[in-house]
Amino acid sequence: MGGAPALLFRFLILAQGAGLVASAILAGIFLPDDEGIQDHAMQALPNETNRASLRTNSQIRGEECSMESGRILAIDVGSTTTKALLFQKNGDHYRLTHRFNAPTTVEAPYEDVMVGVNNAIRGLEHETGWHLLEGGQLITPARAGDGVDLFACTSSAGGGLQMMVTGVMRELTAESAERAALGAGAVVLDIICLDDNKTVLEKVGRIRELRPDMILLAGGTDGGALSHVIAVAEFIRAAKPKLRFGNSFRLPVVYAANADGREQVREMLGGTMRVEVVPNIRPTLEEEHVEQARDEIHRLFLEHVMAEAPGYATLVQWSQSNILPTPAAVGDILQALAASEEANVVAVDIGGATTDVFSVMFGKFNRSVSANLGMSYSITNVMAQAGIGAIMDWLPVELPEGEVRNWAANRMIRPTTVSQNQLQVLLEQVFAREALRLSMEHHRTVAVGLKGIQQRRQVADILNQTRTGRPLVDPFQVDIIIGSGGILSHSDRRQALAILLDGLQPTGITRLYIDSVFMLPHLGIISRVNPKAAMQLLRDECLLPMGTCVAPVGKARPGQVVATVKYRRPDGRAGVERVVAGEIKVVPLAAGEEMALEVIPIRNFDAGEGPGKPVYGTARGGLAGLIIDGRGRPIQHEVRSEQRRAAIRRQLAALGAYSESQLAALEAAAKKGVCPSGPARTGDYPRPHHREDPPPDPARRGQCAGGRHGGGLFHHRQNRTAARGALRHRGGQGAGH
Amino acid sequence: MAKELGIDPADTEGASRVAVGDKVLEDQVIARVDHGVFGGGVVELRSPVEGVVEFISNAYGRMLIRERQKEAQPPFVVNAAQKLDIPAWRLRWHTAVKEGDEVKQGQMLAADPYSVYASAVFSPVAGVVEKICSHTGEIHVRRPYRPVLLDAYIPGRVVEVIPEFGARIATTCGFIQGVFGLGFEAYGRLRVAVDSPEAVLDAAAITAHDRGSVLVGGSLVTLAALRRAIELQVAAIIVGGANNGDLVQVLGREIGVGITGQEELGLTLIMTEGFGRQPMARPAFDLLAQNAGRAVSVNGTTQIRAGAIRPEVIIPLDER
After folding, report:
1. Of A353, A491, B77, B163, which residue is the least packed, with the fewest Cβ within 10 Å?
2. What's the pLDDT score for residue A135?
């Protein structure tokens, strides 16, 4: 790749998953030879436990080598980290057996994504003792204990799939086009339409300047006026946008507009661009069909965009077309989950620069990208949008506003740093709450019904006028919430639960899960080939059940009883809990257990069926159990700061996120300041111990290196320390800003 | 264009005698159509301005020409009194604009709502109202002309001129990269305003003599010092740290994403260490102290994304 594309790439590589920047930097660029990994890993091992874990992995090799099939390698090439997961079939079930992270090498000086992919695979080879590569090629299908049977890949490197969408009217066809592009996993660079208040030259200049990977041209209904669609096509023709990568193919334009304009647009743009026609995404104002446009976007992404990105041709060849943009893969697995559970699902992926929100409501899939809400690059924007007061309100300890501001700003200017002490971890978590809240608000504005449709009204509806374009995500209808991304997957599990509860504020009866190691994209792409395995892995390895939240909505003074929750376990044991305004209660309910619920709210509180009406449901267990949240929605904080902090402390203690002693330690630390030993620097940090992750199944002991099992953390640290060793080996080149 | 030529909009491109990207002169024929002897004969369309053809639309039957800006171009004269059918001396009673106002194309300049036929006069071009004449009854609209003056930013030798784009300038210099900055390119004489990298730069350390200079602070610049520096038109401040809250107060808004450089602060701020009180790195402070009195160039432009841009201090060493 030449200098100019490389420079552009550097600007574009913003990223999803930027929260993992730290590990990418720490992990260095080169992996040392196998001997080096072993040496450095062993040097860095802090105690006998880790040594034992290493031995355990060696021991299990023998058992697993005998398996000759059912091995899946899935890799997510993120903006900063290439995450390789190895799944192994054991009996009827697949298990996550090993994982390895390596830095993504899509940027200069490497400019070849395969360097990072090879590093990740070599890391897995070292851990498993299996040969996965032979002569630079992936061994597939597996033979004699080596290689894999299936290789699948997702990618968001280099900014992912960057699209521009066009339409005639912003709120009609352009909005449908945006939904189609977002659903296909694209980053929507801009929306060009006739009513966007841009001059013609601005529109043309914008298309030219942004250099999208692909354009989705929508606009007009079938049989409607054609001139507007033609006008939009003229803007594209006048702009003659150049490609981001390579020059050997023509810019793909997906024409999903007025069917009558197909030939004319093909004639207009066909000379310089590749026009692919799909059925109109808005054939009438009352209909929206985005599926075929999404499929075409995926096909073109694979055939053209990926084939031209540096190093991706090999990846496409290896994966035998099992490759997708990362968000599209996440969308796939969530839709599969929603279908199998017959539930409405909302998932969030909070990264360093952006936060993605996915929803599947009554089968309708939507995705939104909050481009400037994240935990490092965009953390000050969370402060700007939420207001420093809203963030401070979540703090259980007293801290000067100036210190919180400076800490956040320092995190923003050094996005690859990691928290150095528990107080900084706490600050990260309060920012995450507001980032999630704002992202969810944004999602509700994106996931809306069709606008401009005809509505039939009767005389009786005179006093009940409803508008079109209503939000599709009704909080009461959400059955499952899944939290993913660095801050949620790598925090203490109960602290992650508290973030999820406070940030997304589920209402009614909602099940909560955390993605154990950000495995959703891998499972999404596997689901295209082996849906059964993907669903089994999703349930067994990926989603950590946190429990079920019961949260009636209304306003009451603190201490008032706002609802009664009656529950009955399958063994007949029953109980009654009162929901107290402003408080959280937890009823233990282990993972895999269920109980029947009856929620009876008071007259002005709503649990999902209307004010005062009882609601019946089922609670499923998890790490916390049944969480009874009486804080109302939206959560109102006490005005007086001392009472507010006390309430937050009670809530955190009730969830088990922080014990009294931890809160006391935080209080003492707060008096010394957020950065008692200076600002955070890029470097090592103590990884949180997931103290309540379920212990490994004795039958599987030592087999699983990822997720909820201690081995996963160990291996992750091993990767990092090994790579640090490599850095030392190379003369201590550190990563700075 | 299609309407004036009497053709279908879809034929606009075919009737055009110029293509996108062509330069056209004022009054040059840009489109021509022959309707035949019985259809009205040949119809030509001439360019109203000198410029470049940017866009031809078959959908709307339009051609877009970007006008070339010329300083000496005469103003557009609108005989408003005549159009409103009022005496020239009464023109000011009816104008909706005054001298110096910026007007858009099509914006109302004057109106007479009391006439039998309520009438109004609109600006034919976007520009600035230069003159409303009560003797002639005319309104003069001058099209905006903004010459682009670009400073060299650093002293040095021009090693390359990139036509219609820019120039490359080389210099031997000392270079310090900060972590965060505000404001754009600035330059001035370097003055170290504190005794040590740990010292705080407060308002008392800034005097009226510092106008146009680049001040070096220590670990922190206070809000009062920032305000005084802006008031005294100090060119820039290089300092270890500053409080986020103070910058928000000076800017009048929160610093959202880490993309800066366009702030109209009246001052360029370069932070070498980060937010809060943070002593400047000793090597950076010493380098600045050694070069006190030299003219330095600074740029607060920051972009915290992959391919990051950090603020910079350039100390040209072969100053002439």
Report:
1. B163
2. 87
In sequence order, the β-bridge partners of residue A262 are none
DSSP-derived secondary structure letter, A541: I
- Indicate the pLDDT class of residue A22, thresholds 50, 70 and 90: very low
- HSE-up of residue B210 (Cα within 13 Å, Cβ side): 26
All residues at 6 or more sequence positions from A30 whose CB lies less than 8 Å from its CB, including other chains = A119, A726, A730
Report the alpha-carbon distance of residue A4 to residue A21 in Å, rounded: 24
pLDDT digits (tens, 9 = 90+) for A278-314: 999 999 988 888 888 988 988 888 777 776 777 888 8
Put simply, the answer to whether A406 touches B9 (Cβ < 8 Å) is no
Alpha carbons A415 and A438: distance in angstroms, whole number: 20
pLDDT tens track for B236-267: 999 999 999 999 999 999 998 888 888 888 99
Tally A–B CB contacts below 8 A. 112
| 3-state percent breakdown (helix, strand, coil) of chain A, nearest 5 | 40, 20, 40
Helices (H) and strands (E) in chain A, counts: 24, 24
Q: How far apart are CA A368 and CA A347, in angstroms?
A: 11
**Is residue A54 classed as helix, strand or coil in its secondary structure?**
helix
pLDDT in tens, A224-256: 988 899 999 999 998 888 877 666 678 999 999
Greatest Cα-to-Cα distance within chain A, rounded to the nearest angstrom: 81
Q: B224 in helix, strand or coil?
A: helix
Encode pLDDT of A709-727 as tens digits. 322 222 333 333 333 333 2
Q: A330: buried, middle or exposed (CB in 10 Å: 19+, 13-18, 0-12)?
A: buried
Burial (CB count within 10 angstroms: exposed 0-12, middle 13-18, buried 19+), residue B307: middle
Nearest to B59 among A234, A372, A410 (CB): A234
What is the number of alpha carbons within 13 Å of residue A264 lying toward its C-beta? 17
Lowest-pLDDT choice from A60-69, A422-431, A585-594: A60-69
* Torsion of the alpha carbons at A154, A156, A158 and A164, rounded to the nearest 10: 120
| B62: Cβ contacts below 8 Å, ≥ 6 apart | B1, B2, B12, B55, B56
Residue A351 DSSP label = -
Structure token digits, residue A550: 């019961």
pLDDT digits (tens, 9 = 90+) for A494-545: 999 999 999 999 999 999 999 988 899 999 999 988 899 999 999 999 999 9
Question: Considering only residues 270 to 289 of chain B, which have any Cβ-Cβ distance to chain A shorter than 8 Å?
Answer: 273-276, 278
pTM for this one? 0.77
> What is the model's pLDDT at position B72?
62
Tokens coding A400: 């000067």
Q: CB distance from B136 to chain A under 8 Å?
A: no
Nearest CA in chain A to B244: A406
User: Rounded to 5 degrees, what are φ and ψ at A614?
Assistant: -70, 150
Average pLDDT (A198-203) is: 86
Quick one: three-class SS letters along A480-515? EEEEECHHHHCCCHHHHHHHHHHHHCCCEEEEEEEE
In the numeric block, which tokens belong to residue A593? 């257990």
Cβ-based neighbour number of residue A378 at 10 Å: 31
Other CB atoms within a 10 A radius of the CB of residue A109 amount to 9
CA distance B81 to B133: 10
DSSP B212: T
Percent of chain A's residues with pLDDT above 70: 78
Structure tokens at A322: 């099992």
CA proximity to A169, closest of A148, A193, A146 = A193
Q: How far apart are CA A724 and CA A41, in angstroms?
A: 10
> A249 versus B153: which is more confidently predicted?
B153
- Window 1-20 of B, Cβ < 8 Å to A: 9, 20
Residue A220 near residue A168, CB atoms below 8 Å:
yes
Question: Taking CA atoms, what residue in B is nearest to A227?
Answer: B59
